[in-house]
Amino acid sequence: MALLEIENLTVEFETAAGTLRAVDGISLCVEEGEVLAIVGESGSGKSVSMLAVMGLLPWTATVKADRMAFQGRDMLNLEPAERRKIIGKDISMIFQEPIASLNPCFTVGFQIQETLRQHTDLDRAARRRRAIELLEAVGIPDPQERLGSFPHQMSGGQCQRVMIAIALACDPKLLIADEPTTALDVTIQKQILDLLMDLQARTGMGMILITHDMGVVAETADRVVVQYKGRKMEEADVLSLFERPQHPYTKALLAALPENAVGDRLPTVADFSLDDTPYTGARP
Amino acid sequence: MATTNTKETSAVSLEDGAAIAVTRRERLAEFWYYFSQNRGAVIGLAVFVVIVAIAVLAPLIAPHSPSLQNRDALLLPPVWQEGGRWSFVLGTDAVGRDILSRLIYGARFSLFIGLVVVSLAVSVGIVIGLVAGYFRGAIDTVVMRMMDIILAFPSLLLALVLVAILGPGLVNAMIAIALVQQPHYVRLTRAAVMAEKGRDYVTAARVAGAGNIRLMFKTILPNCTAPLIVQAALSFSAAILDAAALGFLGMGAQPPTPEWGTMLAEAREFILRAWWVVTFPGLAILITVLAINLMGDGLRDALDPKLKRS
Amino acid sequence: MSEIVLETRNLVRDYVIGGGLFRPSRVIHAVKGVSLKLEKGKTLAIVGESGCGKSTLARMITMIDAPTAGELLIDGEQIDIARKTLTPEQRRKVQIVFQNPYGSLNPRQKIGDVLMEPLIINSDLPAAERRDRAFSMLLKVGLRPEHFNRYPHMFSGGQRQRIAIARALMLNPRLLVLDEPVSALDLSVQAQVLNLLADLQDEFGLTYVFISHDLSVVRYIADEVMVMYFGEAVEYGTREEVFSNPQHEYTRTLFAATPRADVESIRRRLARKAA
């Protein structure tokens, strides 16, 4: 049984300019212990579909799907209270802006223990021990000391480590990472990706990695879904995607990588004769 | 996300450029289009225009002289109440003056006070705030401490002291009130300027060679207007009421002058016996302020390019 | 030998931080003595991570901030904005394009006005002439005539970056400082903008200082590469030298950390994972 199954997911937003379809019939599934990368450019609906799974979309959004199941349990018609028991415990998420994702008013230790209090029945001392354990696991030096630190006293990379610690607090079955390294420097990105891959291999959790960076995909994913304007363009395992991209859009994306440049002009997506509807008006 | 291809668009001839210049009239039409999208703003504008018209045409509309005292009709109720008379539609006050006529004439003074005070406070406040926020450093510290001192005084007390120094009278009262109100604008402008100043487009204008004055007034200021418009609309009512308070203390508009705030202040003692003496001036102020606030909202939205569609 | 457009000698920039009532002020050395020379028509890429001083260096080269010490020469002419105000002629020579296309355009200025503003400030061309120039520049960067009267928020990131480039070129600069011009853009749009920059460089004989943290872009666009680390230029040479034989430890770390998107490294990774 797949960990997460989504069939024909559609998300629409009501905006002043009419209905906007952000996700258009996406189907995907994640197996246990698998790293699935969702690649796409801005506006491809890659984050929105995952937020829909988490139930984190604003009220203007309409979510429709033939099936959306986590470990065989239907997620579509779940009571909010039931959903909250799963979200944050069995499915957790980390975001792009590590510093903004942490509450600046509370210490790091408090924020980790808060999650533990919500989802486990550990007592105070046990929660503290677990928090230290988690910080150690994500590679933060002096975890005992660091429990009392505030987010602004840490660097972006360290904040992302804390976010990962919070996400891992309840041993999730599925971790959704939404552009986890986009705001970070390359050397830090490498450390964070290594950490994520290491934790994933150790815990055997499933992981969905949302990114726009082909390099990150190549370094992490088992399987890849390429999305464009809310639709799935291609799905393949990572090696065949890079070796033999099938869809013109995937080919265009790979060709547009500067390191793959042949000659002194970069091919652009338009060169691959994709229907590219012109940009009209402001985005919602 | 779609961007155009260089090759095909350069084929478009330069002649289209001639049609691209926008006349002032078109700009006005565009402004009106976006302003009229906001129904509240249009209603506000309509009400405001009516009030202005009443003020201008006061001698033609008013049934009585505003200061004529009818000794046979003291504290007469409005016409729909028992004892009301058709010749005094909204009743009379304690010395027998027709309230409707006083309200109509009062519109002149009150609008005048509101407009003068707000525009004085806004223009001075914006300039000081711009300078403080743009140059920072010692100028900023000195200016802001001065504003803090002004804000620390109870506003009416300070206005009183100022009027006492300048001498009583409507004009001096307006200057005093403007001075008391202007720190709010300074603070608002300064905060907005400081936020905008660090943005890249300001640096880009500087790299293009723009001097300080141009950067302050042409580049930064237009992006700081939203909070200022709201504050200006709100403080219109404060200006009228402050002027009334000064008038009440004998430092502003002097008693026979039919000014809304003064009318309100004079009528306080009758609030239980004759509700109409207090209610109508209050309603007049309320309606005017509401109209101006609605208009201000519409103005802010119509001036914000982000809300425009291509 | 061709002409040197940009030269810096031991450029230093310090920031004084804090200095409250009870705290002594601290001095941060953002740029510690950077020297470089750049020929006309070449592209120098400055690489480094956030906080390494590359943007500070860019601001000094663009004559926005004055250096604390050292010399800056544009076209062989010594520039010192701390002591002497710039002439319009000097100002015109160096222009900049910023990273964030959403912050670099005045939201209340129509595109046409954005492009004409540099001319209004720096020249006394008649209005019609100004408009013609702005208009042809708009077309040159790949936008359409009807964009002239639109506001910035109606454009996508890539289009805005084209507008920013057009604005920078309005004054016919010698040197264009590009401060991470493509790092906020999508991959396909990034390719378009990089192509545009290459075309413009050929057409106008422009010299670029290209600031970036993305090594693959740098490798594609640069003639010379400088790697900065904590305010110092730890590596400086031609692209081939730097990429094939990095001297400094940090440069090697940087190269190793850059994700590789080629089939070979994916194979290697999968093999490692299977083992």
UniProtKB/TrEMBL annotation, chain A:
PROSITE patterns: ABC_TRANSPORTER_1, ABC_TRANSPORTER_2
Domain ABC transporter: 4-254
Keywords noted in UniProt: ATP-binding, Cell membrane, Membrane, Nucleotide-binding, Transport
Stored SMART domains: AAA
Pfam families: ABC_tran, oligo_HPY
CDD domains: ABC_NikE_OppD_transporters
PANTHER family reported in the protein's UniProt record: DIPEPTIDE TRANSPORT ATP-BINDING PROTEIN DPPD (PTHR43297:SF2), OLIGOPEPTIDE TRANSPORT ATP-BINDING PROTEIN APPD (PTHR43297)
Protein name: ABC transporter ATP-binding protein
Species of provenance: Chelativorans intermedius
From TrEMBL, chain B:
Membrane topology of this protein: Multi-pass membrane protein
Domain ABC transmembrane type-1 positions: 107-296
Keyword Cell membrane: yes
Sorted UniProt keywords: Cell membrane, Membrane, Peptide transport, Protein transport, Transmembrane, Transmembrane helix, Transport
CDD domains in UniProt: TM_PBP2 (cd06261)
TM region positions: 41-62, 109-135, 155-180, 224-250, 270-292
Cell compartments where the protein resides: Cell membrane
Coiled coil: none
Chief location: membrane
UniProt entry tagged with the keyword Membrane: yes
Pfam families the record matches: BPD_transp_1 (PF00528), OppC_N (PF12911)
Family: Belongs to the binding-protein-dependent transport system permease family.
Protein name: ABC transporter permease subunit
UniProt organism field: Chelativorans intermedius
Automatic annotation (TrEMBL), chain C:
One example GO MF annotation: ATP binding
SMART domains (alphabetical): AAA
Domain named ABC transporter: residues: 6-255
Alphabetized UniProt keyword annotations: ATP-binding, Nucleotide-binding, Transport
Regions annotated as coiled coil: none
Matching CDD domains: ABC_NikE_OppD_transporters (cd03257)
Pfam families: ABC_tran, oligo_HPY
Cell compartments where the protein resides: Cell inner membrane
InterPro entries associated with the record: AAA+_ATPase, ABC_transp_ATP-bind, ABC_transporter-like_ATP-bd, ABC_transporter-like_CS, Oligopep_ABC_C, P-loop_NTPase
Bilayer topology: Peripheral membrane protein
Chief place of localization: membrane
NCBIfam families in UniProt: PRK11308.1
Family of the protein in this entry: Belongs to the ABC transporter superfamily.
The name this protein goes by in its record: Dipeptide ABC transporter ATP-binding protein
Organism: Chelativorans intermedius
Organism lineage: Bacteria, Pseudomonadati, Pseudomonadota, Alphaproteobacteria, Hyphomicrobiales
